[in-house]
Design a protein that fits this description.
Blueprint (H helix, E strand, L loop, with lengths): L12 E4 L5 E9 L4 H11 L10 E8 L4 H11 L6 E5 L3 E2 L1 H5 L6
Length: about 110
């Protein structure tokens, strides 16, 4: 299948077992990238052709620092993918729950 424009063929990080089966697929983003970049990676992680349901899938966002606007902005980009999303701030540590529970501001 040909790649779509802007579609990436590789994951940022893949963990294999001793039989070289994929057991974890991980995508990383930094500094609150735009919505298109988030959507592209979520689509890739949610592609069932990339392994069965036992494959762990994580989307890890790392930001330098965060506030209510950051939480709200990220929340709007991850909607429907909260179960695989994790977020860390270099200044505040794990902020995943703050992002997931943030209201979306329009």
């Amino acid at each position: 299948m040909p790649l779509l424009a802007g579609q990436s063929a590789n994951f940022d990080f893949v963990i294999h077992d001793n039989n070289f089966r994929r057991i974890a697929l991980i995508e990383f983003k930094a500094n609150n990238a735009d919505e298109y970049d988030h959507a592209k990676d979520f689509k890739k992680l949610n592609n069932q052709e990339e392994g069965d349901d036992s494959v762990l899938r994580y989307f890890i966002e790392i930001v330098k620092n965060a506030n209510d606007r950051t939480y709200s902005s990220l929340h709007g980009k991850i909607e429907g993918n909260e179960d695989i999303f994790r977020c860390c701030s270099l200044s505040d540590g794990n902020i995943t729950e703050k992002v997931i529970s943030a209201p979306i501001k329009k």
